[in-house]
Amino acid sequence: MPIPVEYQNRRVYHFTHIDNLESILRHDLLSPNKARELGIGHTNIAYDEIQQRRSNMIVPCGPGGVVHDYVPLYFCKRSPMLLAVVQNKIADEQLIIYLEFSISILEEYDCVITDSSANANHPPNFFTNPQNLDAIDWNAVETWRWGSQYDRLGELPVKQKKMAELLVHEQINSTSVRQIVVWNEDCRDIVEEIHRDVGVTVPKIAYGGRDYYYIDQGTTRPPVTGPYFIKKACQETIDHIIERLGSATAPQFDNLHQLLNALQDDLESVPETAELVGLETENRMHYEDVGQHTLTMVEQLKNLSEYEEMNSTDELLVEIAAFLHDIGKGPKARWVNNQGRQKVDPDHPIKALPMIERILTEDVRTMCERSARMITKLVCYHDLIGGILYKGRRPEELITVIKYEDVEELDERLVNMLVAVSKADILAIDPSWNDEDKVKQLIDDIFERFYVFTQQKK
């Protein structure tokens, strides 16, 4: 059946990490099951729970099988799924590209249409007839607003209807791509270079802007920083601190012991922590202001078995990091237009980096390089383990944090400190938390994964 006239000019979209482009050009765009069958890996930006659901969801028409036998395309551009990926730091939005296709691929490949996302517990309706494009809620597909306030009683949530899919069986030839949409010129250059390296013609490349991407209001940045740029900012901060160690002209403290003693006596002894005192938060998970939460976290830290197992140096470093972990939520001046209440800010760890640099280079006369490195990493990544356990962040990101820079080994002391900081932060929010087995399983998996990786390299 032909595509109805009113839909013939539409496009469909597949968004993916730019790291996957070379493989797509060499092997075509493959369904998850086809890629697994051929042993072709990729940089994964999807939620494991959703992928598990899709791997078992039956497609009752067309070529049949399960959803993972198909390449997923969306009728919408800026999808709720992309927002979740960005907000939860699963990937850097700047490194996401869109492969754009004409809807005419419906006539070129074995395809199945869904009227909502195939990622919920309740499957969507599946169709093979292009006439059933009428079953899609096109207002939902085009809307930029979704959430419970826009849902109607008895109907699917708007965000699920927005993510109606065109599922293409097994693979799409890379030559079917009409254009590639990128974040900026730097990404365009990378896309062009990959095409040249593979030896294929560069297609049309367009800049996406707000039609395709989530861009922080009034800026050219994404709303949340992802793993690549977090790591970059963290390393740059560490490098700057190490370059300036011992150069403070009027330090408050001779060493880190004095800094910790001051923080223990008075949270207002350092300007950045002083800004947390009395700072109310909109985060519904927190029942204390940011300053009191900091003190509660420090107390929780000292009760952990991980803390008891540390030597005195690591106890010093991890406690300082606990005092400083939320300084990126300040200063209070940020929140004047919000009645002085701190908004939920997933980027507060990275916003703390300039503050960490100031404190360690201006307030403290001397420390060793390792101490500066550990404190910076602990503050920057204090939310990482929780993010992996509950928000879909990638275990591979943790490996890059805890790996020694010059040898193929993991820093077990840093692992222990990072676990302690993460658990203390969670317990300060929810004293009844009891998922310690999940943390242990994660760390065991990390070491096993790293061991397998290093053996494969040999």
Characterise the protein shown here.
By secondary structure, the chain is of the alpha+beta class. The protein contains 20 helices and ten strands. The strands form three sheets. The protein has a four-stranded mixed β-sheet. Helix 8 runs antiparallel to helix 16 and helix 15 runs antiparallel to helix 16. The termini are far apart. The mean pLDDT is 94.
Condensed summary:
This protein has 458 residues and is α+β, with helices and mostly antiparallel strands. The protein is built from 20 helices and ten strands.
Task: Summarize the helices and strands and which ones pair or pack.
Blueprint (H helix, E strand, L loop, with lengths): L10 E7 L3 H7 L1 E2 L1 H7 L9 H9 L13 E5 L5 H8 L8 E7 L8 E4 L11 E2 L10 H5 L15 H5 L2 E5 L1 E2 L6 E4 L2 H14 L5 E4 L19 H18 L11 H10 L5 H4 L15 H13 L2 H4 L3 H13 L23 H4 L1 H11 L5 H12 L3 H7 L4 H8 L9 H18 L6 H22 L1
Parallel strand pairs: 9-10
Antiparallel strand pairs: 1-4, 2-8, 3-7, 4-9, 5-6, 5-7
Helix pairs in contact: 1-7, 8-15, 8-16, 9-13, 11-13, 11-19, 13-16, 13-19, 15-16
